[in-house]
Design goal:
single chain, 421 residues, mainly alpha, globular, disordered N terminus, transmembrane transporter activity, transmembrane helix, membrane, NCS2
């Protein structure tokens, strides 16, 4: 009984801050934060972007139960199928001259265009045509990336603090994703050590991404939880094989050039679907808690509303009211950095606070984590995640096999607490 008591106390300590009521609005806010970019960008070439959105919806919802050779092709490949069909249609329209206007050249800067006729059509030419990017032509067939290929990284403590906060948000996302994935593959929930190991490896991968100059960090993709649910495939071998294929393809420059040549309106149409999925998957974490509880409804509602409203307040300082400049939502926090409402004599502090409070997911996390951990609620009502105990996991060979590191690497690092079970 004493051992059981210690186990309960350890699990309670592990989950006291991060629970489904915190994870749900935080992940949802990540998806909702791009609402001002999605369809406004699709609207620049509506016949391409809207068709792609409709195709993905039709494939993933209306045709999801149709099987081809025993596989639900339309459900599993809804996004690539929609992209391929739309890209092919846009290519045919471009080749047929649907977006060619007499005397107008898409490569001429807008500032150099004198003709009013061309000014009225230049936006559609740039957004609808598939041949405006030179990425595919200019990309080499083979290229071997190497560390520091873009020069020595520049360190700025202000941006480093901002990225630390963003990394914290991604870690909260990972907590929910790890737990959901374990339930989908019918395994025991991960242990606190496995959770720490996963987040630590995300940090290590982000360091490697910085050395290779990718411009983005590494984190758990919440949409992959949906992929596991759809494909019923949770094999680590499949993930390892996919990773090897992606590494090999990264060496073929034409593949990257082709991806970079996809028109932005098509990318925005895909992201409309993906961000909507991310929002829904975030809110689905509430199924682990009492979703109908008035306590949880108020906390989630306040977190989501203020995650949109407070950044809007900060972002209104970023652009002068006398200009018609439209800035994508993902750039706005950095524009607010120097002009936000938080102003002290310390410029660095102003930069960090104005930038951080302009991120939707930061506001959602702050409000949710404060309210969920200060408003009284039972463990069942909060839906506290349950984590497996290391001792119990080691006694079950199947569970140990699910979570151990491949190639017996874990045995070498047994002395590191967060690497083992």
């Amino acid at each position: 009984m004493r051992v059981s008591g210690r186990s309960c106390r350890r699990q309670s300590d592990t989950t006291v801050l991060i629970n489904p009521v915190v994870v749900a609005p935080t992940i949802a806010a990540v998806g909702l934060s791009f609402y001002s970019y999605g369809f406004p960008r699709v609207g620049t070439c509506l016949e391409i972007g809207a068709v792609q959105i409709l195709l993905v919806i039709i494939f993933s919802l209306y045709l999801r139960k149709i099987s081809v050779l025993g596989h639900r092709v339309f459900l599993i490949y809804a996004v690539p199928l929609g992209l391929a069909i739309t890209w092919a249609a846009a290519f045919l329209l471009t080749e047929a001259g649907a977006y060619s206007y007499k005397g107008c050249d898409v490569n001429v800067p807008v500032s150099n265009i004198i003709s009013e006729h061309c000014r009225n059509h230049i936006s559609r030419m740039k957004q609808c045509r598939v041949d405006t990017s030179q990425a595919l032509k200019s990309a080499p067939w083979f290229r071997f990336p190497y560390p520091l290929q873009w020069g020595t990284p520049v360190f700025q403590w202000k941006m480093a603090l901002v990225m630390c906060v963003v990394s914290l948000i991604s870690s909260v996302d990972s907590v929910g994703s790890y737990h959901a994935a374990s339930l989908l593959v019918a395994s025991r929930p991960p242990t606190p050590g496995v959770l720490s190991r996963g987040i630590g490896l995300e940090g290590l991968s982000s360091i490697l991404a910085g050395l290779w100059g990718t411009g983005t960090g590494s984190t758990t993709l919440t949409e992959n939880v949906h992929t596991i649910a759809v494909t019923k495939m949770g094999s680590r071998r499949a993930v390892e094989l996919g990773a090897i294929m992606l590494i090999v393809l990264s060496l073929v420059g034409k593949v990257g050039g082709f991806i970079a040549s996809i028109p932005e309106v098509m990318v925005a149409a895909l992201l409309c679907f993906m961000w909507a999925m991310l929002t829904a998957l975030g809110l689905s974490n509430l199924r682990y808690s009492e979703a109908g509880s008035s306590r949880n409804i108020i906390i989630v509602g306040l977190s989501l509303f203020f995650s949109l409203s407070i950044p809007a307040y900060f972002q209104q300082y970023g652009i002068s009211p006398n200009t018609n400049l439209s800035v994508p939502s993902y750039f706005q926090p950095y524009i607010v950095a120097s002009h936000g409402p938080f102003r002290t004599k310390y410029g660095g502090l102003n930069y960090v606070v104005n930038t951080v409070l302009s991120f939707h997911m930061v506001i959602a996390l702050l409000i949710a984590i404060i309210l969920d951990n200060t408003v009284p609620g039972s463990r069942q009502e909060r839906g506290a995640y349950v984590w497996s105990e290391p001792e119990a996991a080691r006694r079950e060979p199947a569970v140990a096999k699910d979570y151990e590191l491949p190639f017996r690497v874990g045995r070498v690092f047994r002395w590191v607490k967060w690497v083992g079970l």
